[in-house]
């Protein structure tokens, strides 16, 4: 059921209510990030109602000891999770000695606004204390130019009477994770100090038993207060503050600027943490707030020049795609090859904040088109750097080769649900496919020929060991798996898993044939091993139904009671929140694209009729309760001519969080799946494909839109695509001429190319 908190605006999220009953949802949607760190949209001042205070630093995590009811051999020893870090945005506000608390105090003329064009969060409101009226304005941003830096500007204006206003900026290390397995507090104090206008605190994670390095964080604060009559500083355990007292006369304003620099042991030795955070602030001494704000805004403007998607005729659709691109870039922009993209980014703790297969399957295509290719290459390098960990995962379940984890910070699996950890092994194929996708799209084969072959070979060795031969059918099979549809566990011969395993073996053999013999010898790949892989390719079992002429999701899927999702009542939905797990497992309902995931990824290997039959069979059974689901269905619906369905699915993926479709955004945004809204437009409505190293388009215009336009990087070229009711225009903005396909016809793109009345 849709839940919309913010007004529709092309570039902004704007709310005019504190939303006490949906505060966590409001906080998730107004999260900020800069690739280095992120904060939920918490208020600076006190809020005593239900809230989820959250600050997260990229690459900082804790191995929380696994907690399960019944231990099984092979379980990960720990569940790695991003940990809630220092609360560095806090500013206590006292008016005539009374604390301001927006849960208890009534705010009028309230406006909360996230500006996606500039990456700035603003808030203003009126409040009455002791019969006196005040106007509060606050603005903050996390700099994308100086990534260790957070800036906050806080103003309190006395509207009708004089008052004593006290502003107390602080840093608080007394924070916990709501998802801690044993309710541990993960931080210990190392040091703290507070002096006039400045304060610093250093913390480190508690000890663990898994030989994982302990992380340390230092945060330094510098405050600038105009016309404060009194100042003070205080430090206590895990807490530092500066205090400013203002005598504010009617019509005048108490003004505070708070600067915070955050550094971690990922980049500095422990003894250098505090000096380094302090030095960052010292180096900004000659730059005022407006200067720092301007360079941040300018940097966002440069990002949007390439990445923006323009939609005319549907402001909700426009807001959705911009919000999703903004949050993706706020989470990851490729500056640090040690990092990846967590499903919740910096917006919450669910899923542990770790790396999933979402990156390769959904996020990579967007970054290939909207950022420098080195950004995508860093995502591939991240997996190569963790190859040893993937080998450990395979050994733990008795297999050869490498099994990439479902959830990880190091390459070692740290997810503790057996149906995911042991069975959802299709994720291995996504890692292999990402190597193909990068190579095919960029034309750069250097990664494939080196690091990529290391990864492909070890993944292929896993698949070759994981299959078994059915003597009854004389076919290779894969039993005991969970496919992309997580509403079915421990099934045999999930079609998608069997297909992507076979494809990986085929791609590895083809790639080995192209590289130098020295690399093959280095990998110790024998002719006998290749012969085995080829035999598996030739003799893999794929469940198929002659009556329906469809690929069967797994061996017994058609034995279920088959009924479409329109038979579900509103009280049933979402079924993952209203049904028992037993009932879900026995049902025919599908969480997300499964068979259709394979048809989408390998679209050049299936004809139109095959796509149509499988889509028409499986989509009516799909509840789309995974954030990853709508994008795939948009692309396939568009391809088979189901344009209305494609638009419906686009709206779901574009506004999944903004409208809280799945009733689960209060604990954080669905960051990786946000790439799905871009995929839906570019691969769905515009029909972009890159099969066999050749670019093609086949656009259509949704009926409710009047125009859309976007840009892509492609093989050292920048291309703009514009579509309206009568014309498709391709424009080469930068780079050499390119031959591509438009509606199945070869065309030469030299500068501008237009096709009129294309829909006829």
From TrEMBL:
Domain Glycoside hydrolase family 65 C-terminal residues, every copy: 688-749
A single GO BP: trehalose catabolic process
Domain Glycoside hydrolase family 65 N-terminal: 17-266
Chain sites annotated for binding substrate: 357-358, 591-592
Active site as annotated: 486 (proton donor)
InterPro entries xrefs: 6-hairpin_glycosidase_sf, 6hp_glycosidase-like_sf, Gal_mutarotase_sf_dom, GH65_N, Glyco_hydro_65_C, Glyco_hydro_65_M, Glyco_hydro_65_N, Malt_Pase/Glycosyl_Hdrlase
Domain (Glycoside hydrolase family 65 central catalytic): residue spans on this chain: 322-678
Name used for this protein in its record: Maltose phosphorylase
């Amino acid at each position: 059921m849709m839940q919309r908190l913010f007004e529709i605006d092309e570039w902004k999220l704007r709310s005019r209510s504190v939303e006490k009953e949906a505060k966590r949802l409001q906080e998730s949607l107004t999260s900020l990030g800069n690739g280095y760190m992120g904060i939920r949209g918490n208020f600076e001042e006190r809020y005593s109602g239900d809230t989820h205070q959250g600050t997260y630093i990229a690459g900082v995590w804790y191995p929380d000891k696994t907690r399960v009811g019944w231990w099984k051999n092979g379980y990960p020893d720990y569940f790695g999770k991003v940990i809630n870090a220092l609360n560095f945005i806090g500013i206590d506000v006292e008016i005539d000695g009374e604390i301001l608390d927006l849960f208890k105090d009534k705010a009028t003329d309230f406006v909360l606004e996230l500006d996606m064009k500039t990456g700035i969060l603003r808030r203003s409101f009126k409040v009455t204390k002791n019969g006196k009226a005040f106007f509060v304005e606050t603005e903050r941003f996390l700099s994308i130019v100086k990534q260790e830096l957070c800036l906050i500007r806080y103003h309190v204006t006395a509207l009708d009477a004089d008052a004593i206003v006290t502003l107390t900026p602080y840093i608080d290390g007394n924070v916990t994770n709501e998802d801690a397995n044993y309710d541990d507090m993960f931080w210990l104090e190392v040091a703290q100090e507070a002096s006039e206008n400045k304060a610093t605190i250093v913390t480190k994670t508690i000890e663990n038993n898994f030989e994982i390095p302990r992380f340390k964080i230092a945060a330094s604060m510098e405050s600038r207060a105009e016309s404060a009559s009194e100042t003070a500083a205080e430090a206590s355990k895990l807490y530092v503050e500066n205090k400013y007292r203002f005598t504010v006369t009617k019509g005048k304003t108490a003004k505070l600027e708070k600067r915070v620099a955050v550094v971690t042991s990922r980049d500095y030795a422990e003894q250098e943490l505090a000096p380094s955070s302090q030095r960052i602030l010292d180096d900004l001494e000659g730059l005022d707030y407006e200067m720092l704000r301007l360079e941040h805004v300018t940097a966002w403007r440069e990002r949007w020049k390439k990445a923006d998607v323009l939609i005319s005729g549907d402001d909700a659709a426009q807001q959705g795609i911009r919000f999703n691109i903004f949050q993706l870039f706020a989470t990851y922009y490729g500056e640090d090859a040690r990092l990846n993209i967590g499903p919740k980014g910096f917006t919450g703790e669910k899923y542990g904040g770790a790396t999933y297969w979402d990156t390769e399957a959904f996020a990579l295509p967007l970054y290939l088109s909207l950022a420098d290719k080195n950004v995508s290459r860093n995502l591939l390098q991240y997996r190569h750097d963790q190859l040893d960990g993937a080998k450990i995962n395979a050994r733990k379940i008795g297999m050869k080769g490498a099994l990439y984890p479902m959830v990880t910070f190091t390459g070692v699996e740290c997810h503790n649900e057996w149906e995911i950890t042991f069975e959802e092994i299709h994720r291995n194929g996504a890692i292999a496919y990402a190597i193909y996708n990068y190579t095919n799209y960029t034309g750069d084969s250097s990664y494939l020929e080196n690091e990529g072959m290391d990864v492909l070979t070890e993944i292929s060795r896993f698949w070759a060991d994981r299959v078994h031969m059915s003597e009854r059918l004389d076919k290779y099979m894969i039993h005991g798996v969970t496919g992309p549809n997580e509403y079915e566990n421990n099934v045999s011969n999930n079609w998608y898993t069997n297909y992507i395993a076979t494809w990986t073996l085929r791609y590895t053999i083809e790639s080995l044939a192209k590289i130098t013999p020295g690399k093959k010898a280095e990998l110790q790949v024998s002719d006998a091993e290749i012969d085995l892989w080829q035999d598996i390719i030739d003799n893999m079992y794929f469940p198929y139904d002659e009556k329906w002429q469809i690929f069967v999701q797994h061996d017994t899927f058609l034995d279920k009671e088959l009924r479409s999702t329109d038979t579900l009542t509103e009280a049933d939905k979402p079924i993952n929140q209203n049904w028992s797990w037993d009932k879900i497992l026995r049902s025919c309902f599908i969480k997300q694209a499964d068979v259709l995931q394979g048809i989408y990824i390998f679209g050049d290997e299936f004809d139109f009729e095959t796509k149509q039959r499988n889509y028409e069979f499986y989509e009516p059974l799909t509840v789309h309760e995974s954030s990853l689901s709508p994008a795939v269905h948009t692309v396939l619906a568009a391809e088979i001519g189901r344009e209305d369905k494609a638009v419906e699915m686009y709206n779901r993926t574009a506004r999944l969080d903004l409208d809280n479709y799945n009733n689960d955004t209060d604990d954080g945004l669905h960051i990786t799946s946000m790439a799905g809204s871009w995929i839906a437009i570019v691969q769905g409505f515009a029909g972009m494909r890159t099969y066999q190293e050749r670019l093609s388009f086949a656009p259509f215009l949704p009926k409710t839109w009047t125009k859309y336009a976007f840009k892509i990087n492609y093989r050292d070229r920048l291309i703009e695509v514009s579509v309206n009711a009568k014309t498709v225009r391709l424009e080469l903005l930068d780079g050499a001429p390119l031959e591509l396909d438009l509606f199945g016809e070869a065309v030469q793109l030299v500068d501008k190319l237009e096709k009129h009345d294309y829909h006829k």
